[in-house]
Specification:
Number of strands: 0
Structural class: mainly alpha
Largest sheet: none
Distance between the termini: 35 Å
Mean pLDDT: 91
Number of helices: 8
Shape: elongated
Strand content: under 5%
Radius of gyration: 17 Å
Order of helices and strands: HHHHHHHH
Helix content: 55-70%
Length: about 160
């Protein structure tokens, strides 16, 4: 893996870690991969050597420092992390790496656990559309297309 790809991977895994979508072990593995790819940094090395059993609350400052060290800005708070994860997942939909319904489901799941940013509202509505597609005379493909359109809007900051 190239250093750039490893850096991108740590940024993505780190972001998903903030919203409990990945494990501490995956963040540590991404930090290790980035070191192997040639990156250097004190916080990065400490994160790569961290114990997977470390509580998230105890690891937050180290993940923040490692991400900062490699040029990724850690989210300021939970809301910022959820919005950034939403944008990441929107990009994955447009690249074909994530099914549209997976994003809408994630938004609804996140809304039960936390508040969701206003920009996620349309995805929550579209998740409901999947559940009642027959009643609203909509096909799965039409709803998928609407999710992709919302994802594109989100990434263009049209909201």
């Amino acid at each position: 893996m190239t250093e750039d790809k490893a850096r991108e991977r740590l940024s993505e895994v780190g972001l998903l870690w903030y919203v409990d979508e990945t494990t501490t072990a995956e963040v540590i593995a991404a930090a290790c991969a980035l070191l192997v790819a040639g990156a250097d940094g004190q916080a990065l090395a400490e994160l790569a050597g961290a114990d997977v059993r470390t509580a998230r609350s105890d690891l937050r400052a180290l993940v923040d420092a490692a991400l900062t060290e490699v040029g990724s800005e850690p989210p300021a708070d939970r809301d910022a992390a959820v919005e950034a994860a939403l944008r990441l997942k929107a990009g994955q939909i447009l690249s074909g790496d994530l099914a549209p319904e997976a994003l809408t489901w994630w938004v609804c799941k996140a809304s039960y656990e936390d508040t969701i940013p206003d920009v996620a509202g349309a995805f929550a509505v579209l998740d409901s559309d999947y559940r009642v597609a027959a009643a609203i005379d909509a096909s799965r493909e039409e709803i998928d297309a609407a999710v992709r359109a919302e994802a594109a809007k989100l990434l263009r900051d049209e909201r």
